[in-house]
Amino acid sequence: MKRIVLTEEEKEDILAKYTEADDKILVYLRRNFPIIDIQKDLQEFFGKYRIMVDDKAYSVRNNFSALVNLIDLEIRDIFPDVDDKKRRQTIKKFVKYFED
Q1: Range(s) of the domain holding residue 25
Q2: Greater pLDDT, 83 or 10
Q3: How many domains are contained in the chain?
Q4: I need a surface site. Which of 34, 47, 50, 95 has the fewest CB within 10 A?
Q5: Helices and strands of the chain, counted as H and E runs
Q6: Is position 70 within any domain?
Q7: Of 30, 18, 24, 14, nearest to 85 (Cα)?
Q8: Which residues pair with residue 35 across a beta bridge?
Q9: Is the pLDDT of residue 86 over 70?
Q10: Phi, psi torsion values for 59, nearest 5 degrees
Q11: DSSP 8-state class, residue 48
């Protein structure tokens, strides 16, 4: 097994992609976009989780960018004071946690 060694600059670059998150948006996402566990026998087709967006359940598997766009459209007006990049990065962090 090979070992991957990251330079300090590469490490900071990777962390910068996922550390910029707004706590109040994360709390809002957890409360308003419920996560549904998929039954074991269906996980092969749909993945482990589904996220409810606009009263519809979307599979997290293979829908990452679509979910980010849908959720962003839903909350854009609720958090107008938050920068677009930071808002989308927070949504990505939330969805990425449930991606299998």
Answers
A1: 8-98
A2: 83
A3: 1
A4: 34
A5: 5, 3
A6: yes
A7: 18
A8: 51
A9: yes
A10: -70, 140
A11: S
